[in-house]
Amino acid sequence: MFCVSALLGFQPQPAPTSGGDHDYEPHLPPPALPPVPAGDDGDSGSLSGESVSPSPAVTGKRHHGSPEGPVKDNGGVWWCSVREEVEESRFFVSVINQLTGYSWKCVQREKAQECMVSIKKGEADLVSLEAGLAYTAFINHSMKAIASEIYCDHAKSYEAVAVVNRRACESKENISLMDFKGHRSCHGGYSTAVGWNYPINYITNLINSTEQNDRETATNFFSAVCAPSEVEGFDICSACSKDNETCSEKGIYSGHSGAFRCLVEELGDIAFVKSDTVLLYSMEGPHTQLWSTKSVRDFMYLCPQGGCREINGYPGDCSFGAVPANVIMTHNSMPNKKREHILETLTNNSLVDALHVPNNFSGHLFSPSTQALDTIEKVTRLYLGKSASISQSIQKLNAPETGANSYKADNGSEESSSSSYICSSQVMTMLSLLMSLLILGILTPK
């Protein structure tokens, strides 16, 4: 397998310059993976050392894509896929089922938030998420990251970039992000790391808009915004929807490819995407689509500090920063044996070819540039690192009072805690003294 930039003949540059259901029968040699016995769900436990009983199985017959909960057969693994991801999910688990004696199945949901809820209810086990949504799952749904994607050159992160039309870069020598104030923007998803959190956090600091929440910052900076959301009711669609409510039920403007499509179709003037998105989905790319009508040469990276750079997959310092690789998440209550089997299966070399599915699939369960999957050894908050910090900053903008109180609670010094204790003790002492005097006054004969 080749990296996209190498496949298209691009090389790194050191400095920026101005300017429905399918039946699959894959045939792969079976690896030496022993099946996990049915009924291992009784062995509860988590990485945190807490013993938590697993959620009960959901019973009843269902069909793929239906809103009802799935049947969780004893010892099975349910993978929750979002919208069109279900095609690749079914392909992937069909390969797994040939390799192991374990039963893997897919369940489809319309939004990532629904997958998080399904996992929390015990209706599903796994979901693949990018870093921004992974933080949401970690904070709000008691979930943890157990495996990550690996990219070209064994990379476990990718760059968050802004992409603009070449003509914009050629029209002004030292063009910067501020030049796009009042223009239209394309974001792969609200609360996603690359599509939202990194650029909006940068803009917040750039214009010092700490009095506004993230949505206000975006809609005041840009004239129109296309930002689908994986959480119900948070879409911002003034740039890509006539009704300005939802950015298409089919998610055609969701994700990195959706944000780039928004730019290609000239619904927006700037797109916030992963660094290799244009290489993958331009008319020369390996994942070209019907809407891929423009060349990679028609676009450039817009450097946050100013200037533009040729698109080659290696933006260097012409980015908003590195984002940890997409992760596979599960609930904290998943039994240890089941988690160990899942990790042993996902990281097996015999599954590598299954990560690269036919190009006619409309959605991707994994990033198209994924080379393999690897176990995450760190706890989720540490794995997410800078991305988690930026996500937390965005949340504090949306709930400043709650954020401030939470920050004080988490970071209060021993001195302040001691002072509070001393103050409370003094009050109690005074009250006791007054009560004693009152009682003495009542009992003392006159």
UniProtKB/TrEMBL annotation:
Which biological processes are named by the entry's GO terms?
iron ion transport
Q: Which residues does the UniProt record annotate as the domain Transferrin-like?
A: 77-402
Q: Which PROSITE patterns does this one have?
A: TRANSFERRIN_LIKE_4
SMART domains for the chain: TR_FER
One Gene Ontology cellular component term attached to this UniProt record is: extracellular space
Which residue windows does the record flag with biased composition (Low complexity)? 44-56
A Pfam family (short name) is Transferrin
Segment Disordered: which positions?
Answer: 12-70
**Residue ranges, compositional bias (Pro residues):** 27-37
| The protein, known as | Transferrin-like domain-containing protein
Source taxonomy: Eukaryota, Viridiplantae, Streptophyta, Embryophyta, Tracheophyta
